[in-house]
Amino acid sequence: xxxxxxxxxxxxxxxxxxxxxxxxxxxxxxxxxxxxxxxxxxxxxxxxxxxxxxxxxxxxxxxxxxxxxxxxxxxxxxxxxxxxxxxxxxxxxxxxxxxxxxxxxxxxxxxxxxxxxxxxxxxxxxxxxxxxxxxxxxxxxxxxxxxxxxxxxxxxxxxxxxxxxxxxxxxxxxxxxxxxxxxxxxxxxxxxxxxxxxxxxxxxxxxxxxxxxxxxxxxxxxxxxxxxxxxxxxxxxxxxxxxxxxxxxxxxxxxxxxxxxxxxxxxxxxxxxxxxxxxxxxxxxxxxxxxxxxxxxxxxxxxxxxxxxxxxxxxxxx
Amino acid sequence: xxxxxxxxxxxxxxxxxxxxxxxxxxxxxxxxxxxxxxxxxxxxxxxxxxxxxxxxxxxxxxxxxxxxxxxxxxxxxxxxxxxxxxxxxxxxxxxxxxxxxxxxxxxxxxxxxxxxxxxxxxxxxxxxxxxxxxxxxxxxxxxxxxxxxxxxxxxxxxxxxxxxxxxxxxxxxxxxxxxxxxxxxxxxxxxxxxxxxxxxxxxxxxxxxxxxxxxxxxxxxxxxxxxxxxxxxxxxxxxxxxxxxxxxxxxxxxxxxxxxxxxxxxxxxxxxxxxxxxxxxxxxxxxxxxxxxxxxxxxxxxxxxxxxxxxxxxxxxx
Lengths: 318, 318
Fold this sequence. Notes:
Two copies of one chain form a homodimer.
Chain A: E1 5-13, H1 22-44, H2 49-62, E2 82-88, E3 93-100, H3 106-116, E4 121-123, H4 125-133, H5 147-161, H6 170-173, E5 177-182, E6 188-194, E7 215-218, E8 222-228, H7 230-235, H8 238-247, H9 253-265, E9 272-277, E10 291-297, E11 302-306, E12 311-316
Parallel strand pairs in A: 3-4
Antiparallel strand pairs in A: 1-5, 1-10, 2-3, 2-6, 5-6, 7-8, 8-9, 10-11, 11-12
């Protein structure tokens, strides 16, 4: 039996501490803890890593604090196009959805597609139609819209009009959620969900629904979910690059993940972060920005949650 | 100065010789030769591999014989959704389009997106809107429809209704076009374009527009374009897998490409093929099906075209 473990990220960025109140930071950490517990409960009961990462990402999608599902970023015309993907390291099965607008939890749609064998990736209205036929919760497109994202979009557009786009807080622009897990049978899985970034062009697909770029899992090697400017993650095939450095390059997970974020992805001048896990040991969460929402439960059942440099040790999970 | 070379595939499958007349096989080989000459002319004039693969794929898109652009496969409702991507090995820039319906040459749209820096990937109507704004040739959606694809779809649906889907010729189901090239500066590039497969679900995205899966290029390593059941190429991250076996695994291009097709992809029970090129030498074109439309021009300027086992040496290119 393998040691179970789970980790997640809730997006990286400048995460200025002044952007929200202390109560909001506390609530965000609470939601991270809730998400970890949801996945851990499955793993502790002997469930699969695939079920665990889905359950963890659902909690993050349902939280206002993260750019996925409810509270997702708004595209340039003020609506939402949601992307998600999930991969099972046991047999490399995968499901990916791009540009969803009506499915409450895009990660559930990706999982249902994985199970269906109908395709690995669907885009546009067909993805929502598939989700509805699969019996998933459907919502009106404005379900996802929150006041903070509307304000952020207005702020971004105003600054763009003033030519000061470069000064916009990165926290307003990016963010994605993702999870990785290892179950008792040693199987690895990864899941990622996102609203993209505020003011993104309609139709733009980032790395989150791209297997190999934003999400990847292969038993015996690693499971991966990324956050940062998706275009660079796609061009670097970031998830599969991490796996390849381990599988063929002989690197350890920690060093390979650190090098990928700080040197490979960082060399493009972007903010980048990831969560990854290997066949043994605890998740790693390197990032090169001021902060990254993240958390994990170690093989000894100890939960850790963080948004910036300092770690909040929340003790043993029941 | 590097030795220039170019290679292409026009899709793999059972390619029953009885499926079309000898005149049609001859015309298909002629179009392959035309496509190779279009790319070679650019390379021979000192142009870039990126320009060359785009020009080559445009010729294949415009030919009735290949499942891309004009003559593309029909989806389950009788229309077309076209996918394409292109990648520059020099700097890993890439452009990808999914589910296009109105752009005459999807590969030109992918190239324009690459140059724009606006995004790496667009899906749905936004891709066509981008192409139109970029000044590309736009067409009515039925421009792509040919009698042979309409008949093939009807035949597939009839057989599916009779429960004999498994006997349908693979040639009716799959097919994709792609090209790789190396220019005088040693830069590598790859491009892929497809209509997917006949009777595909609406919204289904295969590997062709997925950077790392159906298309990949990195200078000093390889350029790659794949053909076959896209879902497996996505799950195996086939293009980047080939590059990783060379870069980190120390394999040679030829052995890595052969192993990828016959063992890795073949282990899933699918038909698969690819064209790839490295920093030196000629393109390789392994496939595990009865045939694959393919052709290349060697570093010595000799053109070879083939559809099945026998090679047609067409002599030196002027």
